[in-house]
Design goal:
The chain is about 30% helix and about 25% strand.
């Protein structure tokens, strides 16, 4: 019996262990499946505006060659479709598997793209293109949307035209975009010209984790399309410098994209490492050559290893994409970022999906990051150290304090002794709120307003926190109240901490109507208090001029002041001679001023000044007319002395009083406790301060230093630094804790968890 029990117990334990092992393996398999989503084939849908306004924004119909480029770049194994829209939506090319037949049909259909649409039915186009999208589709799903206009579905003469268009926008942001959010599809939006509804296109990209970009004219359209395509279909590249690139033995195929200069006559050719010349007309069977008006696209299978050269116009957008088991994997560079975002980037080399962590290889590999700002400035930094390569093969870098709104380009290059790899990413910094600040002379306060740029922002759940630093170095952190009448978060700051410089840092947590979160930390707002009105400034300027005139008189530059000059010094306008004060009146005014000063100073002894005492200042003044100017000057001097004395007394009295924190004009019930908020927000706001960090230097010509092929220590370029706009070195002062938003977590995150 005991033996049977032991036997049964053993079987039970074995069963439990086996079950646990199977469960563990299943969990690992599921986790791997989630992380392997990036290995899924692509589903790319292209939506193109054909409304009548395109006649002005794209008069040469450059949408066709731009679309042709994407069709040629579409990888095998993907599926794709094309839609056009004006008033009506047309599925120009149905969604199907990409092969030579699909490309041929799509290229023929692209010729039909025109500018004949009467309206801009953006809502309908996105609604139709969502057909078949699903979280379980087995594809990486993306949409590339091009438009130059606004949602426009009503005649301008229609009485309720704005109501109709507003209803269409609301339907788009809620009902239609919900299909994309549920399926996990990204919408990459492209605004052509300033006529486009940029705010709406930014919101669409934000809601779906897509890339928003702009093309100011049709000539920029193709490269803007390419940026969106790179987000939809990430590709491996090799660096190309001066039209020269290196292909290693692991590359199974490469595709060279060579742009043609407008009006240029040079024909494109490729020189192989062996010295052979490949052209459109002379090439072997393993070469596929597509020639278009604006570019050449050359694909070569099983290419020769070595250095290749493209005989063509130099263009920074020329590039070479490859198929190879050796790849460069990059994480942490989103399509959309906000001011103050902290990006933690991870870079690793992989071979057939496995991370390369062999020290022997990593020591011989240079890893470089290059960032190009929205204004075109460029900085680079070598991330690798041959003496201490990462033990796990993962290079980690922080990209902090980005401030410049617009398009950024981030490039990562890995260069070994026998190979080169490159990854390129576009990201757009946007600010879904508008920040205005100004001095309010009437209220004598400094006014800061944070306004949502669209109705899609949930103002009830969004929060604005202000950190106010006063001249005495004291700090208070407080919640800013939303004013529905002004549709803004409003803070009015008064000089409760005395005169001097005030600094305000804003920390904004926004939540869209659909629950999408974003955080914004704008630049510090710096201003002086108290507010001096224009009229006060003019009076101060007049007083200063009077003082300077008095000093000039003491120096003897004007020994005799004519009656008109005296009148100007006293009143600054026309005054008759008989209105000039007599000596007795001046003496009485001085005596009264001295008595008032004695009273205000709480018993301070101030000797009364008599006419005889004053007359001793200059014994050479004998005539009344000459003395009047001196009396006037003396009055001005004494008045200034009185003002300064009163200011000193007030300052000393204020110093002895208890300290009062700077406050905004909001209800006390909304004011957060300083001690609690300091603990919760210290990290967030510390990241706004400048800390010691290694930066990447910008060269005068906005070009980065080339990466050396040798890994000798003295051959490595010295790490410079990004300027004040951004830093890619994490430092101890920068907070990276995503839970440091204090009471925000209880509002937004709690609701999110409930869902």
């Amino acid at each position: 019996m005991l033996r049977d029990l032991m036997y049964s117990g053993g079987r039970l334990i074995a069963f439990l262990l086996l079950s646990g092992l199977l469960f563990t393996n299943s969990a690992i398999a599921l986790e791997g499946a989630e992380s392997d989503d990036k290995g899924l084939p692509f589903d790319v849908r292209i939506i193109i505006d054909i409304s009548g306004s395109m006649k002005q924004t794209d008069p040469n119909n450059l949408r066709i060659p731009a679309l042709n480029l994407l069709l040629k770049l579409m990888p095998e194994g993907a599926q794709a479709g094309i839609w056009t829209f004006g008033r009506y939506v047309n599925n120009l090319v149905p969604v199907a598997a990409v092969d030579d037949k699909w490309r041929e049909d799509a290229l023929k259909a692209a010729v039909e793209i025109s500018s004949l649409g009467l309206r801009t039915n953006l809502t309908g186009a996105l609604n139709d293109a969502a057909w078949g999208l699903s979280a379980e589709s087995g594809f990486q799903q993306s949409i590339i949307l091009l438009t130059d206009g606004k949602v426009d579905m009503a005649e301008q003469a229609t009485a309720n035209a704005e109501e109709i268009n507003t209803a269409e926008r609301q339907k788009l942001m809620s009902e239609v975009l919900d299909k994309y959010r549920q399926s996990g599809a990204n919408i990459h939006t492209l605004a052509l010209s300033d006529l486009a509804d940029k705010t709406l296109l930014q919101e669409i990209a934000l809601e779906t984790d897509g890339l928003y970009s702009e093309a100011s004219n049709a000539e920029e359209l193709m490269k803007a399309f390419l940026r969106a395509f790179d987000r939809a279909v990430p590709v491996e590249q090799v660096p190309m410098e001066d039209n020269t690139f290196v292909i290693d033995g692991s590359v199974k195929e490469f595709t060279a994209l060579i742009f043609k200069r407008s009006g240029g006559s040079q024909e494109t050719a490729l020189l192989t490492p062996a010295g052979s010349r490949i052209t459109e007309l002379e090439h072997s069977q393993n070469v596929r050559w597509h020639k278009d008006l604006n570019f050449d696209l050359i694909t070569i299978k099983q290419p020769e290893a070595g250095t290749w050269v493209a005989e063509a116009d130099l263009d920074p957008s020329n590039r070479v994409t490859i198929l190879s088991d050796l790849a460069l994997s990059v994480e942490g560079i989103p399509a959309t970022i906000f001011p103050g975002d902290k990006l933690d980037v991870e870079i690793k080399l992989t071979n057939a999906g496995e991370v390369v962590n062999k020290v022997e290889i990593l020591r011989l590999t240079d890893m470089t990051m290059t960032v190009v700002t929205a204004s075109g400035r460029e900085g680079s930094k070598i991330l690798s150290d041959p003496e201490s390569p990462p033990s796990d093969g993962i290079y980690r870098e922080g990209l902090y304090r980005l401030k410049e709104l617009g398009q950024y380009q981030v490039e990562l290059i890995a260069e070994g002794r026998t190979f080169q790899r490159k990854r390129s990413f576009s990201m757009t910094m946007m600010q879904p709120v508008e920040i205005e600040h100004r001095a309010d002379e009437e209220k004598k306060v400094y006014r800061i307003e944070v306004k949502p740029l669209s109705d899609n922002l949930d103002t009830e759940r969004s929060r604005v926190i202000a950190k106010i630093k006063s001249p005495d170095e004291n700090t208070i952190i407080q919640s800013v109240v939303f004013n529905p009448d002004e549709n803004a978060w409003v803070s009015e700051i008064s000089p409760t901490k005395g005169a001097g410089e005030y600094r305000v840092d804003l920390n904004i947590r926004g939540i869209t109507q659909s629950g999408k979160n974003f955080k914004v930390k704008p630049e510090t707002i710096v201003f002086d208090l108290p507010i001096i009105a224009a009229s006060d400034e003019s009076l101060s300027a007049a007083g200063l001029a009077n003082n300077e005139a008095a000093v000039d008189g003491e120096k003897g530059e004007d020994a005799v002041v004519e009656g008109a000059a005296v009148e100007d010094a006293v009143a600054g306008n026309d005054v008759k001679e008989e209105e000039v004060a007599t000596a007795e009146e001046i003496e009485a005014a001085i005596t009264a001023e001295a008595e008032q000063l004695a009273t205000d100073s709480e018993g301070a002894m101030i000797e009364k000044i008599s006419l005889d005492d004053v007359s001793q200042i200059d014994e050479s003044v004998e005539e009344l007319d000459e003395g009047v100017a001196w009396w006037i000057y003396l009055i001005l001097v004494l008045l200034n002395v009185a003002v300064i004395g009163a200011g000193v007394w007030w300052f000393m009295f204020r110093k002895s009083a208890p300290a009062v924190d700077a406050q905004t004009s909001m209800d006390q019930g909304v004011m957060a406790e300083l001690e609690e908020l300091e603990d919760d927000f210290a990290g967030d706001f510390d990241s706004l301060d400048e800390g010691d960090e290694e930066d990447i230097a910008f060269s005068a010509d906005s070009k980065s230093e080339p990466v050396p092929s040798s890994l000798e220590a003295d051959a490595l370029p010295q790490a410079g630094g990004f300027d004040e706009d951004f830093s890619i070195d994490p430092d101890d002062d920068v907070d990276t804790d995503e839970d440091s938003w204090g009471e925000f977590d209880s509002d937004a995150d709690g609701e999110k968890k409930e869902k």
